[in-house]
## 1
Amino acid sequence: MFIFTAGEVNYRCRIPECDAQNAAFSADFLNFTTPAVEGNFARCKRFRKLSNISLEDQCQGEFFDTNQTEECSELIYQDDERTIQNEWNLGCSEDWKLSLVGTVNGIGQVVCLPLVGYISDRYGRRTAFILSAFFAASLGLLRSFSTNFTMFVILEFLDPALSSGMFNAGFLLGMELVGPSRRALVAFCLLVACTMGSVGLGVLVMFVKHWRLLLRIVYLPSFIFMMYYWFIPESIRWLYKKNRLVEASNVIISAAKTNSSQLALKAQTMLKEATKNPSENDLNKIESVNKDAKESRLGLILKSKTLLIRIVNCSFYWAAMSFAYTGLNMNSVMIAGDKHVNFILNILIEIPANLICCWLMEKIGRKTILSLSQISCGLACIASIFLKGAPVSAQTTVFLIGKLGASVSYSIVSVYTSEIFPTTLRHTLVSICSILGRTGSTLAPFTLFLGKYMESMEMILFASMTIPAGIFILFAPETLNQPLPDTIQEAEDIGKVKECRHLL
């Protein structure tokens, strides 16, 4: 959203000697009042007016010294769209505030992830999802009524700080409701839905040119998710690990009825025992529950060298992935061509990326795709540096290849990370990787700012992160056809043992 709400619009210096009270953005006198920079008129510079000019009509070429420039005192913005830049006059020396919006958003996500991870592991995936949706709708609408930049930035922080866990909570809920053979399909469906939502945003921005109305239209539907409490079940795995066996059994029975399936005799017997005498069953499980409670302590992770190395490796991968993914999304509206079309193409490339993931994940495994996608993204970024001045189609094609690689890694990294950590701490550890990785998306907005001072700087930075990440992830374990680990020991054994155990 902040790509458009805090997007740049064209602006120029106001020339008091020539501009009327309600001056238009385009004007013929710019040829002799404003210097040219790379084929366009400078935004923040104007030619100095010659001194001792007392004529009433001062808007003439001979009255401006084209050898001397000065800073603008006022700006005129193009008025075909309304963002916070032209509403609060954030041009020239104030334009860094636009990048700050994206960075604040990233910081808010960092704050949110441990919070929603704790809520999800303690109170359930569904609870975390619905709470996040409520805060998203409320704070998004409130932000549309911001009266100044400070209020806008505060709400830009609070919104992701309280709601950005919606994706992780919903994703984990979907992943934990299916078996290993269906994880890739579920991940594909969820990510394609996200892609189509982003395409819808791109189409919407073509017609809705005011940032306030855009926020209201986009955030209002989030209130619908309040009803999900009655429509979606809690994670069976989470219920089981919390020893809420009756509720877990009810979900399984409901799923069987919905799918018109017949449970195996052994499964029916286990469910009857769980629901027949829950009090006695709970007593029999006390020892197991206590053991799980102790194991749930995050401190035990610090004793596992295997999991610590895995967290560091995944965190760096998340950082590189989010840095390139977010940066390329933001740069899509800056490359040659129509920014709305470029944004939509940039998003649509995620559908073939998701198809590649869905197909190849079950063929060659997770970590091979993770490696190849990041390395190809980095190489495409390097190639784009040498295509400056090339035809628009060539620049766009190479850019989309880079985005394809970033999208493939973005699509699969959540699946892979959820498969290498134990159920008791899965959301918390996935959140830790995502938190450390969010440093990438937090810094990405400033690549646009740096690009104004050093050409292609953003592409150099993207490549310097993604290529090493693609190499390092090869040292992580493969999870293809492996059951989700429930305990720390099972998580450590991934890649070491071949046996598969029965999944609830």
Note: Confidence is low (pLDDT under 50) at residues 279-290, 498-504.
## 2
Amino acid sequence: MNIENAAINILKRGVELDTKKRYTEALVCYQEGLQILVDKIKGDSDESTKIYLRKKIEEYMNRAEAIKKLVLKQKEAGQFHEQVHIENNSTGHSYKTLFGRFLDEEVQYVIVEDPYIRSFHQCQNFLRLCELLVRSCNNLRHIELITTRDGKSEGDQREWFSYLQNDLIKYRVQLIVKYSDTLHDRQITLSSGWIIKIGRGLDFFKAPENKFCLGVYDMDLRPCHETTVDIVHSKNVKQSYG
């Protein structure tokens, strides 16, 4: 596959997402595809090809700018809403793929509400999320987890959180764990105002079939349970640590 075809495929994916009103995902595709075309123009000496590519770049750039304005307008009006439906046994739904585009330098703290961060694999999911947050959010200072106690192995649960707290401190990030007996909501709230609501919480990955199969480490290759992800934006996110 040549560079131009690679860009076209990415841009087509952007159009597909755009049509489904998954605007922020479409924007990522448009930006990636446009960058490839811009690089292609720089290295191409054929004038007719350059004219064709410039026309395509202008076309997709105009749409990308329109999406930016639309998203901004919806955010300001408190009307932004994107929904992703994860089908049973589908792949390609790591945390980074699902909402990594919202993790940036604007995020100073994150609140994770999930009643099922209790068993070993559930705590591992939370660990994966923390790794992604540390790598993506340069100004992150606090992660707050609200969950329920594991009645069977509460000691293990507390120990795992303690290990994680000690590690996060090395990155100047404080982990605060709170327990609630009445928690039902499952959502991730970013201090930048983005709220990610996952129907099944963080625990939507299926267990790997064995210890030596694709998807053991790369979660984009891990089959998933069916669930729905809703992404909204609120200007009223409490600046708890502002």
Note: The chain has six helices and seven strands.
## 3
Amino acid sequence: MTGFRLGVVQLQVTGAKADNLSRARGLVKEAAGKGSKVVLLPECFNSPYGTSFFSSYAERIPGESTQVLSEAARENKVYLVGGSIPEEDDGKLYNSCTVFAPDGELILKHRKIHLFDIDVPGKIRFQESETLSPGDSLSVFETPFCKVGVGICYDMRFAELAQLYSRRGCQLLVYPGAFNMTTGPAHWELLQRGRALDNQVYVATASPARDETASYVAWGHSTVLIMWAERRYLADIRQQIPIAAQRRDDLYAVTSVQEGSG
């Protein structure tokens, strides 16, 4: 792994898709201007987050939003992790993250594996499965700096996914996400710390900016986490605390049933 600057974009999302795309494009340019080589956008960066919005904002891939992402990656010569957008494909809807190389080429599409279905009495009920279908593959891409594993929001709650990414050589895990005002303060940072510590990786999350007037209020607090604040290099930590070599594979294992990277 070599050093690089990661830009994490937390942006205001409104009901105007064109404005969301323009805002995202401008912030990617700003991040690149500050030296970022990899830029991460939030979950549902092009549309309001909610089951009532997914179908009306859904696009094919490639489509309007991914065209903007491709151009932004190429114009700024960055690896662009395009948060997520509602995707329509063959009559089904997905929550999908696209990744573009510095030449604008689409190199990865991750469909959210674990759908956000929760019911916290008196606080929040949300059922992505009412409109969305889950993805069925792991998603990893290579950069000159490190290997990156991709999840979307609720995917972060599943430690097995992060462990599989780590075992495939990922040094950075990225999660575009939109935790809410109930789960955000309780679990957002805690989950990131858990994934980073358990797997000796960097973890980055990008959230939409908080909008108290929205039907779904995002927690915000986009973050980049490492396991040990005063230590910068993964190789040193992995050598000094060699948990990968100390796992008891004779007693337990986490395996992937579905192979794939997109």
Note: The radius of gyration is 18 Å.
## 4
Amino acid sequence: MKKTSGDVKMDKAESAVKWAIDAGYRHIDTASIYDTEDEVGKAINKKVAEGAVKREHLFVTTKLWNDAHAREAVVPALRKSLETLNLDYVDLYLIHWPIAQYKNGTYYDVDYLETWEGMIEAKKLGHAKSIGVSNFNQQMLERLISKSSIKPAVLQVEINLNLQQPALREYCRQQNIVVTAYTPFGSVFPNRARSDAPPPRVDDPTLVQIANKYNKTVPQIVLRYLVELNVIPIPKTVTKSRVEQNIDIFDFELTQAERDLLKGYDKNYRTIAAKAWIDSPYYPFEKN
């Protein structure tokens, strides 16, 4: 449940992962495009060397970027990530986006079904214990499952109070696909919210009241709600106190009335719309 992302400075990523492991996190999420794999790997290997954790008790995720979607490019891309991480394998390898794109920004014609065949090869070689996808919609998942002998183990998508994706979550439940939620706080923090973002914010009186009831913070209430939706949230922070707070959500449960209230904030509002790729034939989101 610890995410290291692209706007995290590399030295901070190493510290954050060390703090996360010490706090009890065992799921570490990175990606080649984040440019944090080196620091993430350093932190993991240092903690393993210290005896703080065993490698087999960690669940490390990284992702294939858009410029390596050709079937024959997948395994070399993962091997490069493994070299950067200084790990023998990752526990989960994801197709980051269903869009094939050169480094110069132009698209190239590779179907994600072809990319998936490369992912299957990576799994068979033992480079990844499991494989999955990120930012795929339900139609893409249906097509992938119908055309392949191996189903994605995980779907990683944006899920937060403003974008709860109930239909997609239900489909994944039926298919036994685990759902991981990036950007779990959405627009809760005012400094991260766009001007058109719907409520709530972190100072919302109703959410503050719920948080006070459990002696928690509003972000902890949000994470707890996602966990109760059977979603794995992966919050991103490089602040030690928040790293520790974000995992301290397993000693209480929300009431049905509280869950119903939080459900009401779902407005199908995306924080990460990736509109720069809207003209791609594999753009996965609504185009309105």
Note: The CA atoms of residues 59 and 277 lie 30 Å apart.
